[in-house]
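Example record

The entry below shows one chain as it appears in the dataset: sequence first, then structure tokens.
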Amino acid sequence: MFKTVFAGAAALAAVFATSAQAEDARSFSHDGVHYNYTTAQKGKVTVISGTASGQVPFRLYVSGNRVTGTYNSRNVDFRLADARNALAAEQAAALTQ
């Protein structure tokens, strides 16, 4: 279960990290999961909050190179680089299948 939580949070953080920061509603799909979220800048911290597939709540805080917060009511804490690496590895695996 934690792998699923981490994968969802990592995908969201990785996709968000590559997009422009704005305070408007956004959405994307990754690995069959549709994410709806908003972002807000609170000083040096970017707050990402929303739902995955309309049911799974999350709130992530991106500060420097760390991502903390909750995903599906579970605490998450990982490096932003880990999120990017996880997404890149997943995409590479999908290409070889």
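Notes for this example: The chain has two helices and six strands. The beta strands are 25-30, 33-42, 45-52, 56-63, 66-71, 74-79.
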